[in-house]
Write a structure and sequence with these properties.
This protein is mainly alpha-helical. It has 2 domains: 209 residues, HUPs (Rossmann fold); 89 residues, Tyrosyl-Transfer RNA Synthetase. It has 13 helices and 5 strands. The strands form 2 sheets. Strands 1-2-3 form a 3-stranded parallel β-sheet. Helix 4 crosses helix 7, helix 9 packs antiparallel against helix 12 and helix 10 packs across helix 12. The radius of gyration is 21 Å and the shape is globular. The mean pLDDT is 95. Bound molecules: tryptophanyl-5'AMP. The site of tryptophanyl-5'AMP has 23 residues, from strand 1, helix 1 and helix 7.
């Protein structure tokens, strides 16, 4: 298990540029990325190709992709040491995805719950890209021979299909891809909607009160936490029947490092008003430095462009090697 100086784990993950990132992305993924970025060789990307599985206006997509990239820089992911880039800048992603399409069964892709959910949400645009989305994601991961993929729980099924595709390909052609493992943090792997705590928090939720976005001002964060749906028991305790309270306890725990027993003890005999005020304050303190770093970086367009260009060049050097190997194994005539 120990990392050696020669061989470090390759850690990889992406975020879609489908909206402003939320605290769900932050606690479910970004915080773990940051923690892993010090010890490992990491590759982090903005999944802008995935973002076009739903309709965007071109100017919005461009702005959101640039901003999402700036968020990755603001997280302190060290672009000089790690590779931080945009997916569409490296054509090998689409290239490998096509090949992997041919090694994925229609039936297994049909079982993806995210495809079923998104088909319901966007019933007027159930495009084939939405269906093959997990295969592009498998290409993202397998191109870089990733060992570990830090994600939230909602991506676990996509990781499983990436593993199945890798194993299937390796079974036919011999060892080609490293089989990746998901890494899901002990807490924060599933942050729920503040308004409907039976469903996950999502950056594309039409109800803006359902999520806290990383650009929300301090007073907006306080308001959103205060209006979070809880229950009528007025007792801060973790229980299956209390998804709204559990969610706020999780957020508080992610911010403070306190476990649920300590949180229950802290708020024993107090009502939800005190509890929500504490959660909001902890969240404001947690997000303020990242947001101000983001605002600083976003002003420096030349720095963003330079990092994105260098990141893409370094990513492509690795991706090209994998695609060449795959094409040779499959039997393409190469000259
Ligand atoms: P995306 O953009 O939806 O989310 C980015 C990361 O945030 C996590 N996340 C959550 N974690 C906890 N609670 C939630 N409610 C929550 N919502 C989102 C996600 O699990 C993810 O880790 N398909 C991916 C992007 C992607 C990718 C990849 C990820 C494309 N290629 C390769 C890993 C490896 C997605 O849409 O994430």
């Amino acid at each position: 298990m120990e990392n050696t100086a020669e061989k470090k784990n390759v850690v990889l993950s992406f975020v879609q540029s489908s909206g402003t990132p939320t605290i769900a992305n932050y606690f479910g993924a970004f915080k773990n990325w940051h923690g892993m970025a010090v010890e490992n060789d990491c590759i982090f990307g903005v999944a802008d190709l995935h973002a076009i599985t739903v309709r965007n206006t071109p100017a919005d997509l461009r702005r959101r992709s640039q901003e999402m990239y700036a968020w990755l820089l603001a997280l302190g992911l060290e672009p000089e040491k790690n590779i931080v880039f945009l997916q569409s800048h490296v054509p090998e992603h689409s290239q490998l995805a096509w090949i992997l399409n041919c090694y994925t069964q229609f039936g297994e892709a049909s079982r993806m719950t995210q495809f079923k959910d998104k088909s319901r949400q966007h019933a007027d645009n159930v495009n084939v890209g939405l269906f093959t989305y997990p295969i592009l994601m498998a290409a993202d991961i397998l191109l870089y021979q990733a060992d570990q993929v830090p994600v939230g729980e909602d991506q676990k099924q996509h990781l499983e299909i990436a593993r199945d595709i890798a194993e299937r390909f390796n079974g036919i052609y011999g060892e080609t891809f490293r089989v990746p493992a998901p890494y899901i943090g002990k807490k924060g792997g599933r942050i729920l909607s503040l308004q409907e705590p039976e469903k996950k928090m999502s950056k594309s939720d039409p109800n803006v009160k359902a999520f806290v976005s990383l650009t929300d001002a301090d007073d907006v964060i306080v308001k959103k936490i205060k209006s979070a749906v809880t229950d009528s028991e007025a007792c801060v305790r973790y229980a299956e029947t209390k998804p709204g309270v559990n969610n706020l306890m999780t957020i508080y725990s992610c911010c403070t490092g306190k476990d649920f027993d300590a949180i229950e003890a802290e708020f024993a005999g107090k009502g939800y008003g005190d509890f929500k005020a504490a959660v909001a304050e902890a969240l404001v303190e947690e997000l303020r430095p990242v947001r101000s770093e983001f605002e600083r970086i976003l002003k420096d367009k030349a720095y963003i462009e330079q990092c994105a260009r260098t990141g893409a060049e370094r990513a492509e050097a690795i991706a090209r090697r994998t695609v060449r190997k795959v094409m040779k194994k499959v039997g393409f005539y190469q000259v």
